[in-house]
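ok so I'm stuck.
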Amino acid sequence: MRLTALLRADLKFLVRYGFLALYALFCLLYLLILAACPAGLRETVCTFLVFTDPAAMGLFFMGALLLLEKSQRVLPALAVSPAPAWAYVCSKALAFALAGTLVGAVLSVFSPAEVLAPRLLTLLTGGFFFSLLGMTAGLHSGSLNHFIPLSTALEVLFCLPGLLGLLGMLPGWLSWHPGALIAAGLRGNPAAPFLLLPWVAAAFALTARTAGRRLTDMGGVRL
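replied:
not stuck anymore, here's the structure
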């Protein structure tokens, strides 16, 4: 029940502060780009654009939300609430993952039907993963000046193998990388989103642990 209430509140928060409007704006921009592409290139361009959904928007928007909540002193209030840290983390990441999956579903109108299911499942798991990275970066950042270089480093580390995978230039030994798995899933590999789950679990454990420590430092208790 706490997770459901937190998720409902986070979705309202995304609407109130314009994050969903930004997602809609990017979605419209991407649709215009795809409509202008030659039919033969449309699916390739769509895959690249969809990859930026969890990778760029999920990570950066999540970090921006964390910094906004810090400025509004939401975390100190949460520290004395009965909500556990893991529910706070899960709710935030799931809200962004759902928004990103919706954008990906709209963009995939140009994609073959056989890639739709693995693509959307990959967007959900990949969006959750990158949102966790953004939350971790935000929790470790005291200001926007701290967050930007940290998030940029995470983008390079986790996105470059994925881009190489989309270009068909990925070395075989990097096929286990989460960015490469997301790229494979977006191209229709049905196993990729499930192979990504251990990475999601590890990122969730790390982020929940970090959030728990931050809340404890603010005067809460370990739940």
